[in-house]
C-alpha cells in the first residue's frame, strides 16, 4: 500500500511543534524512520495510525485520506506503540485473542488458531497462559508485535520496537520484520537505532527536531558519507587531545594507543586511513555534518 | 451499523478483567456469603423463619436485592471510574484504540461488561434466595418478583451509577475526586435525600417503597416506573455524553449521529419521567393544600344529617360509577338553602335529583352544593340522589398529612412499604369512608378546629354490580343474585367500606356475633398453625370479647365482625379528631395480607420458640396450650393493647396500634357534639378508650423522663386548650392534650356525683343513646336532672381557661382503726392547692401482699408501675381513665388556695398510696407514697372524708431554708461540648435542659435533669444526675443566711425504684449509686462529707452542723464517686435553737 504524507504538521496544545511540514511517500516494503529521541517520530506515527489528528496536512493511503476513512485504515492496520508494558489482568493468549477479535477475526476457532500460530512465530507459545503483565520486557515486545500482526494487516506501524531489548531479542525481532516485509505489506519502523534500519529497510527517512532531513534509500545515505569516515591510529596523548572534538564512533586500545573510527571531513596530520562507511557512520555524518553544519577539522 | 461482535468482544474482555480485580472478587464473595447466611438465617426452616418476610413471598427477593443494591451501587462507582483511569494509564490500550471499532461500540462494550458481571452476582444471589424460598415450607414463591425487582432495583441503579461515574471521570479526570463526589452523593442520598420529594433523588431505591403485595402487586407502579426510567435514561445520557467526549478519534459518523440522537432521546425520556414524577408529587401536594383551602371556606356551613343512604356502585377498569340516594335532615334551627356535601375530587357528578326532580348544584373542588329550591326547613327532610363516576383521588384523604418515609416509616425490616388509602386495580378495590367515595355531609378536615368531627349515624344499603368473579365485602348482611351483591345494615353506621377481590370466607358464631374471616385462597396459614384450637376458638373469642366489654363497660354494638385481608400497603394515617384508624371500620377490621406487618402473627415461629424455651426449663406443655397462648397473645397485642414506641432525646412517645378494637366500643356507637367545644367527641373518645400509656413492661427500664401526662401538662402550662388546638399541633401532642383534658373532665364529674354513681349512670346512658348524636347541652342537662350537677358551667374554663392547679401533700399517716370487730386502716393526709386555679386529683391505694410483677416496687423504693387487679400492669397515669375506675379510691377537688385534710378507711393494710394529679403543674403528675412502714398505733377516730382547713399549711418550717435543683440558688457547672460542625449540621448538643429518662448504667457526661416522684420538689420533683468520675463536674446550692448561728445541713436523697441494682465487676450486685461527695462551706472553712447512698435514708440526710454567719452559704457536690452515676437534688439548712 502506498502511503503519502503531504505537508503534515502537528502542534500540541502546549505549543510544541512536534512534526513540521513533512511530505513523504512510503511504498510497500519496509520503511525506516530514523531520528534521535524527541525528533517527532512517535508523534508522526500516532498521526499515521489515526490516534492523533494532524494540525494541518494529510495522510493518504492508496489515495484516501485516513482522517476521513479512519475505520478503513484501522481495519488494515497493525500498530505497536513505543510504550507497551502495562496490561489489564489478561493472559498472553487472551490479549492476542482480544486484539484478534477486534481486528475482525470473528470465528473463534480460527482466531484461536491464529493466536497460537502467532505466539509460536514470536516464540511465546510456552508463555501462552502466563499473565501478560508478568512477561519480561522482550517477551512483552514480542507479544506486541504478535498483536500488531494479528488479522493480516496491510500496514504495520512499529514505534521503537527494539529499545531495551538484548542483542538476541533484537536480532530475532529484526528477522520477524524482515520476514514480514517479503509479503505485500507496508511496514513503518521508527527507531533511533541505526542497526534496526540498516539490516531491514529498503527506504528510509531521517527526522530531526520534527523536520524530515533526508528521505531515500539507506544506500544513498551511506554514499553521502563516503570519504568522510576514517580509521585513526592515535597515541594516548593525541587521543586525549581529539576525543572531545572529533566524532569518534568507536575506539579500540592498540599498541601505540588507540585505533579510532571517526567521522570527519579532513583528518590530515594524523595516521589515518579512509574506510567504507556504513549506515551508522552515515547517520552520524549526516546528523552532525549536514544538518548542524559542523565542520569537523582539526 | 453497530457491530455486535465488537461490543461483545469488549464486553467479554472487560468482564474478564473486572472479574479478576480483587475489589470485585471481595464484593461478590462477601455479598454472596452474607446474603446466603441472611437467607438461611431469616427465611429457611433452619433459621428464624421471620413471618413478616415469609408472609409476602416477594419480600424475599426484595430483601436480597435491596441489601445487595446498596453495596453494588457503591462498588460500581469504584470499578466504573477505574475504567477511564485505566485507559489513560495503560499504554497497551492504544493498540486497542487503533482497532476498527467505534467509540460507541467500545464504551457500550465496556458498560455491558461491567453490567454483565454485576447482574451475574445479582442472579447468583437471587438463585440462592430462590433455593431457600423453595426449601422454606412457609413462604410461597413469587417468581415474577425475582425478575421485577432485578429490573426495578438493580439495573437502573447500575446504569445510573455507571454513567454518573463515567461522566464525572471524563470531566474531572481525577479518580480521587470522582470517588469523593460519587460516594458523597450516595451518602447524601442515604442520610438526607432519600425521603425528600417522594424519593425523587433516591436513585438506589434506598427509601422509595417497592413492596409488592401478593394480592394486588405493586402499589405505585407508575411512579415507581417513572423514577426508575428516569435514572436509567439519565445513566444512558451520561454514557452517551461520555461516548461523545471520549478521548479517541471517532471513526464512524453514523455512530456519532446515533450517539447524538440517542442522547436527545434519553434526555427527553429523563425529562419526561422526571416531569411525570414531580407532577404527580406536586399535584398531590397541591390537591392537599386545595382541599384545606376549600375546607376552610365550608367548615362552618350548615351540613345536613344524612339519615339514610342507598348506594349503588359498579366498579370496572379501575373506575367506579355510582349513585347515592340520600335522605337528609335539617337539624339546624334555620332553613338551609344549599346543602353541602364532600365527594372525592376524582369523582365527577353526572346528575343530581332533589326529591325526585332534576336538581341544580354548584361544585367547588370536592364540595358539592346542592340547591334546595325553597330552603329546607328545620327538622324537615330532603331526598338527594347523586350519580357520579371516576377514580378516587388518594391525595384527598388526610389533607394535613404529607408523607415522609423518614419521619413516619412503615416497614418490614429495612423494607419500606407504601401507605395507600385506596386501592383501585383491575381486579381489586378497597374503599374506606375516609376516601369519601360516596357523598358525605361533612368535611374530612376542619382546618380551624382540627379536633372537630361531624358524625352521622346513617342507615346504609349498598348494591354492588358483580364484576367477574370478584367477591364484594362491606358492612351489613350480604345477599346476592346473578348481577348484584346486596348489603343491608341492622344498625346506623358512621360510614361504610367496600372491598372487592377474590375472597373466600369462613364464619364462626360466638355469643350471637358472627366473626367472619375474608381472605385469599391459600392465605389461611393460621388454620394449620393453630390446628389444635378447634372448638376452643369460640371460647377464646368469647373470652376476649367479654374482657373487652368489661373494659369498656359496654357491649360490642354490631351483629358481626369481619376480618378482611387487604394488601399490606393499606395503611391509614393517624387522625386528629379521633383515635380510630381507617383499618378499623364499624364491624370490620382491615388486616394486612397474611397478617404480615403485625407482630406475633407468625404463630408457628412463636410456638416453636416457646417450645424450645419450655424444653430448656424442662417444662411440659401441650401443643394446644401453646397454640392458645400464641392466639391470645396475638389478639391481645393486636386488637387490645397494641402500641408502638419511639424514642427521641431520652423521652418515649407512644403511637397507638392501628388495629385497636376500642373504637368500635365508642366511636362507631356513640357521638357527643358541641358547636362551641368541637373537641368534645375526641375528648370523650380518648378518655373512654383507655389508651395505654407507655409505662408497662420494658418501660420500667427508662424512668425519669416525662410521662405522657406530664408532657401534656407542660404544654398546657401557659396556654388554654383552645389556643393549643388552634395551632394545629402534631397528632401526638393532640392526643396527649385530649387525654389529660378528658381525664380531668370525667374525674371532675365523678368527683361531684360519685365514682360508682356516675359510672353506672353513664354506662346506661351511652347504651340508651347508641347510634345517636348527643349534644353536650343535652348531656349536661341530663346530668343535672339526675345528679343536680351543672357540668356545662365548667366547660368554658376547661376549654378556654389558662392556669393550672398545683397540689402539695403532707402529714401522711396510717392508723389502725377498729370498726366493729375488724381491724381496718385509716390513711390521712393533708393536700393543698396554693395555685390560683381549682383542680382535682385521684387517690388510689395498693393494699395487701406483694403481687406478682410490679408489686416489688412498693417496698422502700417506689416503682412507677403497680400491679393492678391481677391483670398485668397498670400505671398511675391511667388511674381514672376509662370506665374501669376501680383503681381510684377517691377523687378530691381543691379550690384555688384551698387545703383539705383527707381521710380514707381501707379494709386491708395499705402498702402505698398513689395520686394522679391529672391536670396540674405537678411534675411528675403521678405521685407515689410508700405507706408500708408508716402504720402507727390505733386511733379511735374512724371518720373519713374531707375536712377543709383554715389555711394552707406552711410548706416548710420557719427555721428551714431549702434550695432545690429547680430553685435559682442551684447552679450547674459544666462545659457544653457543642462543636461548630455539630452546629452547622444542626445536631443539637445535649445540654440536660429537657427532662429525660434516666440511664444509671450509662449516665450522660453532663448534668441531666430527670423527674421521679421520689425526688424532692415543690411541684416539680426532679433531680440532676451525671456519670461518676473524678470530680470534674460539680453542682452547688447557694442560699443567703440572715441570722448567724449553728445550722444543721441536710441533703435530700430520693431512692428511685426500677433497676436499682447492677452487676458489678466482681459479679456482685451493686447499686449504680455509691458514694456521694459534698463540700459544706461554713465559717471555719469547708467540710468534706461523704454520703453512702446505699445506707442513706430515703429522704433528708444529715451532712453535719456548722456555724454560719450572715452571708451566702454554699454546699457543693461533685461527680466523684466509685459508683456509675451520681444524683443531686436539694439541700436544707435548719437553724438550731430557733425561737420565734
The CATH class label of the largest domain in chain A is: Alpha Beta
**Total strand count of chain A, please?**
14
Total number of distinct structural domains of chain A: 2
Low-confidence stretches of chain A: 294-298
Identify the most extensive interface between protein chains: A-B, 36 and 28 residues
State the shape of chain B: globular
Q: How would you characterize the overall build of this protein?
A:
The complex is a heterodimer of chains A (298) and B (1140). Chain A has 10 helices and 14 strands. With 298 residues, chain A is an alpha/beta fold. Chain A folds into 2 domains: 3-216, Rossmann fold (3-Layer(aba) Sandwich); 223-291, no CATH class. Chain A has a 6-stranded mixed β-sheet, sandwiched between helices. In chain A, 46% of the residues are buried. Chain B is of the alpha+beta class. Chain B has 23 helices and 53 strands. In chain B, the strands form 15 sheets. Chain B has an 8-stranded mixed β-sheet with strand order 7-6-10-4-3-15-18-17, with no helix packed on it. Chain B is globular, with a radius of gyration of 35 Å. Mean pLDDT of chain B is 86; it is low at 693-703, 850-875 and 985-989. Chains A and B meet through helix 2, strand 6, helix 3 and helix 5 of A and helix 1 and helix 5 of B.
Itemize the secondary structure elements and their pairings.
The complex is a heterodimer of chains A (298) and B (1140).
Chain A lengths: L2 E9 L5 E10 L2 E6 L6 H8 L7 E6 L2 E2 L4 H6 L1 E4 L11 H11 L5 H14 L15 H13 L5 E5 L7 H15 L4 E6 L2 H5 L4 E6 L2 E6 L1 H7 L4 E7 H7 L4 E7 L3 E7 L7 E4 L4 H13 L7
Parallel strand pairs in A: 3-8, 3-9, 6-7, 7-8
Antiparallel strand pairs in A: 1-2, 1-4, 4-5, 9-10, 11-13, 11-14, 12-13
Helix pairs in contact in A: 3-4, 3-5, 4-5, 8-10
Chain B lengths: L3 H16 L2 H22 L7 H4 L4 H31 L3 H5 L5 H33 L7 H30 L2 H19 L18 E2 L3 E2 L2 H24 L8 H46 L6 E12 L2 E11 L6 E7 L4 E8 L2 E2 L2 E4 L2 E10 L4 E10 L20 E2 L2 E2 L6 E3 L2 E4 L27 E7 L5 E4 L2 E4 L3 E5 L9 E4 L1 E8 L2 E8 L4 H5 L6 H17 L7 E7 L17 E2 L2 E5 L10 H14 L6 H18 L2 E6 L2 E6 L5 H4 L4 E4 L6 H10 L18 H9 L4 H6 L4 H23 L1 H14 L3 E4 H12 L4 H9 L7 E12 L2 E12 L5 E9 L17 E3 L5 E3 L14 E5 L3 E9 L3 E7 L9 E5 L4 E4 L6 E4 L11 E5 L5 E4 L6 H5 L23 E4 L10 E6 L6 E7 L4 E9 L7 E3 L5 E3 L3 E8 L2 E8 L6 E10 L3 E7 L6 E4 L1 E6 L5
Helix pairs in contact in B: 1-6, 2-4, 2-6, 4-6, 4-7, 4-8, 6-7, 6-9, 7-8, 7-9, 9-10, 12-14, 13-14, 16-19, 17-19, 19-20
